[in-house]
Amino acid sequence: MSVPLSRRAVLGALAASAAGLLAGCRAGPGPGPDAGPTPTRPSPPPDPQAADLAAERRLLAAYDATVRRHPTLRPRLAPLRADHAAHVAALEAILGLTPSPVPTGGTAPTVPAPAVPGTPAGALAALRAAERGAAAARTAACLTAAADRAPVLASIAACEATHEVLLG
């Protein structure tokens, strides 16, 4: 035997069900209270050209430190330093960064000054070795870089290889 339900009882049951459904919709999908912390997405890997930018800034710092230690080398090193300031600007553009001002007399304080050999000949040899390493690193980077970045990296590598010759 079935008991007829009153209209009020049916509407009350429907209202309670609707309230429960709406509460679930507002909370959104997700783990229950016993599920523990929600997993986070792994952060994307750093942009490979960020390392190239850091290396260019270090090379620029090496030129600045060399000129501070051996002011007589300034005329010879000024054009090469200007090239590296342009490399920094180009890499910042690739990375979508706002260009940082590169002072003409020194690098940004975030780049530590490298040790500079005590003689001008030793300082030039150190810069030559740094340029050789930089050219090799930029060449390797351009081989694995995206198609729109490879020409910039190859151009920087060629410039650094030329600097090595000019410092010899």
Structure commentary:
The chain is mainly α and 168 residues long. The chain has a domain at 48-99 and 113-167: Ferritin. Helices cover 64% and strands 0% of the residues. It has 5 helices and no strands. Helix 2 packs antiparallel against helix 3 (74-94) and helix 3 (74-94) runs antiparallel to helix 5. The radius of gyration is 31 Å and the shape is globular. The protein starts with 6 loop residues before the first helix and ends with a helix.
Give the gist of this structure.
64% of the residues lie in helices and 0% in strands. It is built from 5 helices and no strands.
Total beta strand runs:
0
* Shape field: globular
CATH topology of one domain: Ferritin
Return Rg in Å: 31 Å
> What is the ordering of alpha helices and beta strands?
HHHHH
Structural class based on helices, strands and sheet pairing: mainly alpha
Which regions are unreliable across 5 or more consecutive residues at pLDDT < 50? 9-28
Mean pLDDT: 81
**Percent helix among the residues?**
55-70%
**DSSP helix count?**
5
Q: What is the CA-CA span between the terminal residues?
A: 107 Å
For the largest beta-sheet, the strand count, sense and barrel status come to:
none
The percent range for strand residues is under 5%
CATH architecture verdict of one domain: Up-down Bundle
CATH class of one domain: Mainly Alpha
